[in-house]
Known about the structure:
The chain is α/β, with parallel strands linked by helices and 491 residues long. It has helices at residues 4-17, 71-89, 94-110, 112-123, 127-148, 152-155, 176-189, 204-215, 230-238, 251-261, 286-297, 318-330, 350-365, 397-400, 416-424, 439-448, and strands at 34-35, 37-39, 42-44, 51-55, 62-67, 162-163, 166-170, 193-197, 223-225, 244-248, 267-271, 277-280, 310-314, 369-372, 387-390, 407-413, 428-429, 431-435, 453-456, 471-472, 475-476, 489-490.
Amino acid sequence: MATKRDNTLKLKFDSARKLSPAPESRSSATIRPRYDLFINGKFEPSSGKKYFDTINPATGEKLSEAAEANAADVDKAVKAARNAYEKCWKKMPAKERGKYVFRIARMVQERAREFAIVETMDGGKPIRESRDFDIPTAANHFFYYAGWADKLEYAFPNRTAKSLGVAGQIIPWNFPLLMASWKIAPALATGNTVVLKPAETTPLTAMLLAEVIQEADLPPGVVNIITGGGSTGAALVNHPDINKIAFTGSTEVGKIIQRAIAGTSKKITLELGGKAPNIIFDDAPIDQAVEGVVNGIFFNQGHVCCAGSRLYVQESVMNDVVRKLRDRIETLIVGDPMDKNTDIGAINSKQQLDKINKYIKIGLGEGYDMYQSSCVLPDRGFFLRPTIFTNVAQSSRIAQEEIFGPVLTIQSFRTDEEAIEKANNNPYGLSAGVWTDKGSKIFNMTAKLRAGVVWANTFNKFDPASPFGGYKESGYGREGGLHGLQPYVTF
Ligand code: ADP
């Protein structure tokens, strides 16, 4: 029989879900039917004349198609980048280089609305996220690194930083424009030229960025953007005239890249997978912590390498936290990513949805308790209800492997030592979260957690001035901040 509390909650949830639709207008963005490669300042078809479709994961409809670069195209792009590096970019006064990067930053900002719409349509993330986080943060990275261009002697005191040459940069689909800015901005600021390859499911904002770069009058060849899948990425990695590889993506591909460049002089940074622990102590502000957990794993469909996908709760507040979490996810709005009220958008691709569902099956097969919100999913596109597993064993595959979806595992702990032991007992080490009222506990935990970033009483906070990167199988090297300049220079 439904209790009074159940009825009150039901009313609350129903009214949350009954918000009138508030879709963002698509009119300020034009998506062209076809995108060519951006090489040496011009758009041109691939030499194999092949194109691949990019679809809207919220509807399954084709949005556009992008050229598939083969090894000959990669070679052409690398040659253009080398030529631009030798003849122009490395000789240009740093102050002038900085002006170009500032120009890109301002133009991204001016076209922010268009970028946000295209990002959401191509990738499936809620417009609120692309509008309020992805695009402004991408512009901020260009602004931040533009500022460093003529100040490298302050970044590296008593040393003369020299650029490396041509950087090959490969990025994933979860933050397409933001990852492009993380990679391109520090490379240009330090005097390198670039060949960037976006992910095959989300090429569109990178191609919009190519338009911006062309309009910004960047010397031809300084930035080249080539689209394609894994084989295009592999051709870039294996090109003999590349000086540096910057890769963000899966640990599996990261290992392939590491093997491919072994024995060469190529420098490398790898930002790979994650399985972040979020640790709630009994003295934490519980409501705030629950909101942080939701933000950390559900608001972004779990499509974040640093997503807080493992929750550890101190035993005495376990029931309270699980109850509040269940109540909160029941209010989350899952659906049209273009709607400004949507909390959880579309899963990026069918392949990714299948992978997440496979892990849910594994969790159920291993006998853990699962709870999913009762919301109604759209009848087309790739969507998933926010999912929680409780009573999970530490050794379970769902607690050990990266799922990259809105799936949270929950375990309890009694002491600080147990929390540290469990949190560190994982192959990854990208990020972690600690929720407690005690500053001393925060310092104790941050010193012992093997994670590149530890957030205290907050989660998923980013700033261009702050470095980001991992331990263990989460990769190495740092991006962002002063640290992010280092991988692009030599002394
Ligand atoms: P995800 O699981 O996040 O899609 P991937 O590692 O598969 O991550 O892909 C990240 C990026 O790496 C994409 O741009 C993809 O095309 C590229 N990629 C895939 N395989 C290779 C490879 N063998 N060499 C270089 N790049 C690759």
